[in-house]
């Protein structure tokens, strides 16, 4: 539903299934090379006079969104906004390859028991193949919106992650979701309108 709504709401919306990309299209490549390949896709997909208003990524995909914005800023001088869906900069489960035996019942339930354990393994391993745990976290001067899942409270791990986000994002806005946990941020379709409002606000600000 969120993609259907956004396709109607915005003139141009590019959605990339990075889980499968990282396993198949970018096999053997490092993270920076994958970012350049995404940047090339943007050049090919977008009209010549189009400008990227924002990058958005949930969980680990937020690191792709964040670094894509930094890369675009580096060669155009533009500062597209970044929306991070409860992205962890201090805790990557990507320093080893996950197996089906590692999948827990809670993880299956988080996806509504609608995808196989093998698919969950592919999602978790997508960034392991890119060695994302070794990617340094660099500052960004553009506007960053951090969608903060707070259902489990302000744990020490979350405090540490927010500290990192505050350090790297010069223009940071934190939006708390007190009734949502990490998986809800992407899976809960009732949040779609909230995300739409955030995106619309960012685009209008960019136009002004």
Largest sheet: 4 strands, parallel
- Enumerate the strands of the largest sheet in spatial order, edge to edge or round the barrel: 1-2-3-4
Q: Could you tell me how far the N terminus lies from the C terminus, measured between alpha carbons in angstroms?
A: 29 Å
- The SS-based structural class is alpha/beta
Radius of gyration: 17 Å
Low-confidence stretches: none
Average residue pLDDT: 80
Instruction: Spell the H/E element sequence.
Output: HHHEHEHHEHEHH
Helix count, DSSP H or I runs of 4 or more residues? 9
How many runs of DSSP E, i.e. beta strands? Answer: 4
Write the layout of secondary structure elements.
Layout: H1 2-9, H2 18-25, H3 31-45, E1 54-58, H4 61-76, E2 81-85, H5 105-110, H6 117-129, E3 140-149, H7 156-168, E4 169-177, H8 184-187, H9 192-207
Parallel strand pairs: 1-2, 2-3, 3-4
Helix pairs in contact: 2-6, 3-4
Name its key features.
alpha/beta, 14% strand, 9 helices, 208 residues, single chain, 48% helix, globular
Structure commentary:
The chain is an alpha/beta fold. Helix content is 48%, strand content 14%. It has nine helices and four strands; from the N terminus they run H-H-H-E-H-E-H-H-E-H-E-H-H. It has helices at 2-9, 18-25, 31-45, 61-76, 105-110, 117-129, 156-168, 184-187, 192-207, and strands spanning 54-58, 81-85, 140-149, 169-177. Strands 1-2-3-4 form a four-stranded parallel beta sheet, with helices on both faces. Strand 3 (140-149), helix 7 and strand 4 form a beta-alpha-beta unit. Helix 2 crosses helix 6 and helix 3 packs across helix 4 (61-76). The relative contact order is 0.16. The mean pLDDT is 80.
């Amino acid at each position: 539903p969120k993609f259907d709504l956004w396709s109607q709401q915005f003139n141009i919306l590019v959605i990339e299934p990075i889980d499968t990309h990282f396993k198949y299209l970018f096999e053997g490549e490092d993270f920076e090379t994958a970012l350049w390949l995404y940047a090339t896709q943007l050049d090919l997909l977008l009209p010549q006079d189009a400008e990227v208003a924002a990058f958005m990524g949930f969980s680990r995909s937020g690191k792709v969104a964040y670094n894509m914005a930094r890369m675009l800023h580096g060669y155009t001088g533009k500062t597209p906004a970044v929306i991070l869906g409860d992205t962890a900069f201090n805790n990557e489960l990507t320093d080893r390859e996950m197996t089906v035996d590692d999948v827990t019942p809670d993880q299956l339930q988080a996806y509504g028991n609608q995808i196989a354990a093998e698919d969950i393994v592919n999602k978790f391993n997508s960034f392991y193949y890119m060695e994302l745990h070794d990617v340094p976290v660099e500052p960004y001067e553009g506007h960053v919106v951090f969608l903060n899942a707070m259902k489990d409270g302000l744990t020490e791990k979350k405090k540490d992650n927010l500290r990192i986000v505050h350090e790297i994002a010069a223009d940071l806005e934190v939006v708390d979701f007190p009734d949502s946990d990490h998986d809800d941020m992407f899976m809960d379709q009732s949040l779609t309108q909230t995300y739409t409002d955030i995106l619309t606000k960012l685009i209008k600000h960019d136009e002004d």
